[in-house]
Amino acid sequence: MIRKAPVTESRLAKSSNIDKLHSLEILNIISNEDKKVALAVEKRLHAIARAVDLIAGSFRKGGRLFYVGAGTSGRLGVLDASECPPTFGSPPEKVQGIIAGGRKALYRSVEGAEDDKTAAAVELKKRKLTPRDVVVGISASGKTPFAISALEFAKKTGASTIALTCNTGAPISSKADIAIEINAGPEVITGSTRLKAGTAQKMVLNMLSTGAFIKSGATYGNLMIDLKPVSNKLKDRAKRILKEILKIGDSEAYMLLKKTKGNVKTAVVMKQESLSYKKAVEFLKKSGRMLIFAAIILSVFCTPVYSSTGSWLCSSPSPLWGEGKGEGAMTNCKIALIHSKATIEAKGWRGQYDFDSAVKTLKEIGVKFDVLEDSALGKEISGYSLLIFPDTRCLPRGALPNIKKFCTGGGKILSFFQTSYRDEFNKPASSANDFQLAEVFGASFYRWTEGAERCRFIVPVERISMNLPHRIELGRETAMLVKPSGPSVVLGKWLDMKGNPQPAVEEASIVFNPSMNSIYAGENLFSPENSASLEVKVLIASLINFLLPESAETNPARFKIAENPAYIMPYQPQYPVKAGGGKITVGLSVKSEEACVISGSDMEIEGELYPTESKEMAPKLWLAPNQLLVIRPVAPFMKNPYLAIYHDEKLLATAKSKVRIKPASAGEFLSFVKLNGNGTFESKKYRGDIVVLQQDGALGVINELSVEEYISGVVPKEIPSSYPEETLKAMAVIARTFALSHRARHASEGYDLCSTVHCQAYGGVLAEDFSSSKAVEETTGEVILYQGEPADITYHSTCGGVGENIERVWDAHPCPYLVSVYDSPFNYSGNLNLSGEDDFKKFIDTPPPSFCKDSSRFRWKEEYTISQLQELFNKSIPVLLRDGKAFQKEGVSQLIVKPQNNNQIGELYSIKVAERSPRGRVLKLEINTSTGVYYAEKDAIRWLFSGGEISLGGLRSTLFYIEETGSGAGRKYVFHGGGWGHGVGMCQEGAFGMAKSGYNYIEIIKHYFPGVKVGGDKNGNKNE
């Protein structure tokens, strides 16, 4: 096999005769080549920035940074690590360098050390690597076994990984969470990577450590306030920094440094706040040593005021907001917060909770405002300059013209999440499945998503506020994805859970429409899970000030620190849910290094427990009500991993493998809390027991409960509880059948089903609703049976008028009850064929009567430029190629590729439908590129539009035709389609239409699953 040499081993033509040149000519070649290094590094700044954020996040959690490399790469890592303590005042263990061959390799070559595949893991074990740490593998060639094995070991430990290499497509890159590939070209002396490659690595390592320490508060502006003044030069520098910040003289600066043992930060806080040394150290410790946040702690005791001179002062509280409420109640406030009774009713307990949080947040950031009923929007809006819509989902349709008039007349609006997505009757506001206020937003609805893979982080654009961090982690991990339009400007972008940018078509998280003076944010920043964070409060205040300057306080020192709502999420069941149907175990999608559990009653902790105050094994421990229990996995070097159980940061006990947690009182729930480093959180409540497992040093969390309790948390996540009773009953029977027929689907992972859309979306107690829980109880134990066994059923949102055979969607065997069904009361001819483009276009453009015709997703249109499609496909195709078999196992067809060229599609030439099924769904999509022709098959076509991942973010369905417009770089592809989902089994929107037409739930089920029976178990435990 012939392999192309890596660029670091390639010959540079310009230096091929360098041995025959004069000294100045040699140096000119070297100098010209060195100039290319900075440009090559600049091209990878986005990847480097993600790595900086990853390391900074690790530092905030108490993690460490390890540089691992061989030869020049290893020496550069050790050099950068050794410079961090004097520069940033960090302990030596914070940043560590590991070089192949050990200490002696720093000053002479150790033959064969770089090829040792075990030495790196041994070194990392010695240093007790944890999931909080970050390991950077440094390899110029990208194939050094020592560096690669370090990343492999780090992955097993749960640590984050970064690869730094000077070749593209290097083996080490595939082992890392973030790959930084710097291509500076061949070396002047072939293979001498101490030259350009070494320079590039030195630049990047400087950026990683410097950027991470800056993000961790080690500087004040560009001043080195964490330096250790261990020399005369550094003592003089510390004194100059104090004089610059505090505007004091030499003698005072000298005395402050003497009192604080040379600590500049402590000296600043002592002087600013007139505190003792001990108190200043305490405040800095509580603020995470972030000087800018040090005075936040003071706000527990008083309301601080930030003076124009830059010092923090204390004053007594003063009223900061208006008292007006009602349709016309007016004060001298310029800002109104919109109150929507219809939204609160539609969202239930959650609606009032979120609105109260909006009021609380605005007060905390010093905004003067009135609360205005949404009914007031039905007439001309006067007296206000800014309207704030806090996830005002159910907006009266009659308000639309007045809001437009308000905006065109100079008024401004700030809106969040689902604002204007539905009307006052909680019905879709638009047949196009769009916002009523899409024109005002300057952004049309693209698709909504749920889960960290799409909307975990917001990256604010600098024009919002320089006070904001590079990225802000959110708690709820749910969002509305939008497409900016017209003159709109993107003020914020989405990153995925790994910190990677989304494709351009999905990147906008905050949009500003200058023609309408409006800002739209795709997530509800006012929700308690988000607004508990200081960073989110600053973001909200910055958005308000962007529209109406000086209306909100953006200095965190002004914010009052309230009780963390993560521990007090209110909830009372709306309908009594009864246990029944046997036990089922659900793997909770927890992305956390620890399990945090709390209960309203005493908690029992069961397992093989070893309390810290006793050497005896105990089967049980108890914890009082409303106390936070924290469980962390521990993987000690050369010992068996175990679980550590804490309360109030005090170690209560350890457990070998797993613990079971249950509320001591009947009717109480367990709350699982995921706490993020910036104060945002996720809080969910669960019936039954919580089991926490240690899995090779990592954490697993399982909810064990009865089938009926589980179904009560599934139905309202899969279908709106406002749907007709018969639709909800049908969904309850289907969800129960799915659970029984797919039980043990995740047996290899230790549980039956997962809590995501891969199995069924499960939201626990907080998802439950009166109507859906009632439907579950009224169908208790009822299952869809085929030949005496629970049917292997499935379902989707909207079929678009016709369903599809399972084998035409996934690589599956034909099934007699998973066949194409026309979603209509009329008996269409079985000979109706939609495989031809003309017949299919007619079906889409002039659809026949269908049960799901009233759905906002019944017909849709999505438009992409050629560049947008190229960006989407370049991200998706490599993922689908890599995970093809895994997708096939999960029921999604893999891509067939001809030819495959390093998983890069190159330039996109065209896209067209190559094959269509008799029921109109696209069976094969042809993608013509500069590297060859790619064919996406069946349901995998949808994941071309979602980064290659199965999620709510893919193309809505494969029931579409493509219209090409424009030419050249201005080409656009318009997808005209119908339905949402795969099209197999029950159409949920069709079930809605059938119920409205008088069909009962048994008739609905038999319509979509011909030949089945509904009734007594197998093992639904229904009493006949």
Describe the model.
With about 1000 residues, this protein is α+β, with helices and mostly antiparallel strands. It has 26 helices and 43 strands. Strands 20, 21, 22, 23, 24, 25, 26, 27, 28, 29, 30 and 31 form a twelve-stranded mixed beta sheet that branches. Helix 2 crosses helix 6 (about 195-215), helix 7 packs parallel to helix 9 and helix 20 (about 725-740) packs across helix 21 (about 770-780). The longest helix has 20 residues, at about 25-40. The N and C termini lie far apart (about 70 Å). The model is unreliable at about 285-330 and about 885-905 (pLDDT under 50).
Q: Low-confidence parts lasting 5 or more residues at pLDDT below 50? A: 287-331, 885-903
Contiguous helical run count? 26
Number of strands: 43
- Percent helix, as a range, is 25-40%
Shape: globular
Alpha-carbon Rg, integer: 30 Å
End-to-end C-alpha gap: 69 Å
Strand content: 15-25%
Most strands sheet: 12 strands, mixed
On the 0 to 100 scale, the average pLDDT is 83
Helix/strand/pairing class, anyone?
Answer: alpha+beta
Descriptive key words:
1024 residues; alpha+beta; twelve-stranded mixed sheet; ten-stranded mixed sheet; 26 helices; 28% helix
SSE topology:
Blueprint: H1 23-42, H2 45-60, E1 65-69, H3 71-88, E2 95-99, H4 119-126, E3 134-139, H5 145-157, E4 160-165, E5 178-181, H6 196-215, H7 232-246, H8 250-259, H9 264-273, H10 277-286, E6 303-306, E7 312-315, E8 325-326, E9 335-339, H11 341-347, H12 349-364, E10 370-373, E11 386-389, H13 400-408, E12 412-416, H14 438-441, E13 443-450, H15 452-455, E14 457-460, E15 472-473, E16 478-484, E17 489-495, E18 508-513, E19 518-521, H16 528-531, H17 534-547, E20 583-587, E21 595-599, E22 603-611, E23 618-623, E24 629-634, E25 642-647, E26 650-663, E27 670-675, E28 681-686, E29 689-695, E30 698-706, H18 707-712, H19 715-718, H20 725-741, E31 753-754, H21 770-778, E32 783-786, E33 789-790, E34 795-796, H22 837-845, E35 859-865, H23 866-882, H24 884-889, E36 896-898, E37 908-916, E38 922-929, E39 932-937, E40 960-965, E41 972-978, E42 986-987, H25 988-996, H26 1001-1008, E43 1013-1015
Parallel strand pairs: 1-2, 1-3, 3-4, 4-5, 8-10, 9-10, 9-11, 11-12, 12-19, 20-31, 34-42
Antiparallel strand pairs: 6-7, 13-16, 14-15, 14-17, 17-18, 18-19, 20-30, 21-24, 21-27, 22-23, 22-26, 24-25, 25-26, 26-29, 27-28, 29-30, 32-33, 32-43, 35-41, 36-39, 37-38, 38-39, 40-41
